[in-house]
Amino acid sequence: MDLSLDKKQLEYINLIRELGEQKIIPYSSKPVHSSDIPFDWQLIKMLGEHNLVCPTIPEEYGGLGLDRFTTALVMEEIAAICPGLAAVVDTNVHAVEPLLLAGSKQQKEEYLPALTGKDAELAAFALTEPTGGSYINGMTTNADKRPWGYVINGQKDYVLNAPLASFILLFAFTDNDNKSNSMRAFIVPADTPGCIIGSEHNLAALEYARTASISFENINLPNDLIIKEQEICSGYLLMGQTLDLGRALVGATAVGIARAAYDLAREFADTRLQNGVSIRHHQAIAHMLADMATKIELARLMTWKACWLIDKGGDYTVPSAMAKVTASTFAQQVTCMASDIMAARAFEKDSLIERLVRDARVLSTLEGTNNIQKNLIASLL
Ligand SMILES: Cc1cc2nc3c(=O)[nH]c(=O)nc-3n(C[C@H](O)[C@H](O)[C@H](O)COP(=O)(O)OP(=O)(O)OC[C@H]3O[C@@H](n4cnc5c(N)ncnc54)[C@H](O)[C@@H]3O)c2cc1C
């Protein structure tokens, strides 16, 4: 594994840092309460101008076709500036994964270009239901087969991008008595009659992003909106692969958040004087900074290894889960240590450090909780 970054990868990093300074930081440094104010499409437009709204879409469908490793670099940079924006992009990457893995050429041609270019739209990935996210077999959304397609009924919850998406990648069972063989993925255009987006959740994390429930009330989906290639592979496998691929990017988001907190704490430690001495010269503070930098490095290396395995076609399930658990756990520890260093200021509501603590906190829940990741890792040891 070669850890040096090539010219193109460094260009992406520099590009996002520049965009961050000019356009994203002025936005993300303001407190945002997602359901209180209209979604600001300007940040999406800005990423769209560089085709970064869904960077994994292959070039033949209008995208950049970035590999997983380069996508992780992009995600770390975006997350270091605006974690909610990283969640929006990450959700797009997630939503197109089943299409890339098992969609027909016609489906790819119809749905992937919409997420590319300067007018890129957004997509959502709907798996979790109100009754629970961890126990997948508890899912009750049902797709009833008809000669012309499917009638779908059910409800999904905590779906990122739901209020904004032009299509939703939906998982449902076609036979609730035979769940192990009947999970399928569907493409649901958001304007399908009966597809009802609920009111937005007012979440205290990833504030730029929008999350809502979705009800599917007798929606009629034609046969060409089921991801057909699944007839030759199980829907469970498709869902599992999508989540495995996505977890490595949660690792990258966690590294970006931890890095942002470390930078704040380090700057504060340099300039904060107590009894005439910069607090950085106290060994207790210096050791905390050393621990933070080490945890960030470790999390990044695990994330990069998982992404490298994905790109090389290696077995990435366990490394990806390990990267997600480690990076999200470390992000929580690093943001809390930063908060300790900054002391009273860290408790100013909606200050950057206070928001980073909350953003780091939610990553242990996203894309399969860390408990579920440990179950997965243990089952494959
Ligand atoms: C900001 C945000 C964005 C989200 N975006 C999306 C999205 O875009 N699409 C989507 O489909 N979902 C999304 N989710 C939902 C997320 O995937 C679920 O919250 C997650 O899977 C956990 O489900 P749950 O909240 O129902 O918790 P539960 O499944 O009820 O779990 C509760 C607790 O019990 C533990 N637990 C449950 N079962 C086990 C077990 N077998 N072993 C050990 N521990 C267990 C869990 O680890 C957790 O600690 C999002 C959630 C948040 C907070």
What would you say this structure looks like, in words?
The structure is a single chain. The chain is of the alpha+beta class and 381 residues long. It folds into three domains: 109 residues, Acyl-CoA dehydrogenase/oxidase, N-terminal domain (Butyryl-Coa Dehydrogenase, subunit A, domain 1, Orthogonal Bundle), CATH 1.10.540; 110 residues, Butyryl-CoA Dehydrogenase, subunit A, domain 2; 145 residues, Butyryl-CoA Dehydrogenase, subunit A, domain 3 (Up-down Bundle), CATH 1.20.140. Helices cover 49% and strands 15% of the residues. It contains eleven helices and nine strands. The strands form three sheets. Strands 2-3-7-6 form a four-stranded antiparallel beta sheet, covered by helices on one side. A hairpin with a 2-residue loop joins β2 and β3. α1 runs parallel beside α3. The longest helix is centred in the middle third of the chain and has 37 residues. It starts with 6 loop residues before the first helix and ends with a helix. The structure holds flavin-adenine dinucleotide.
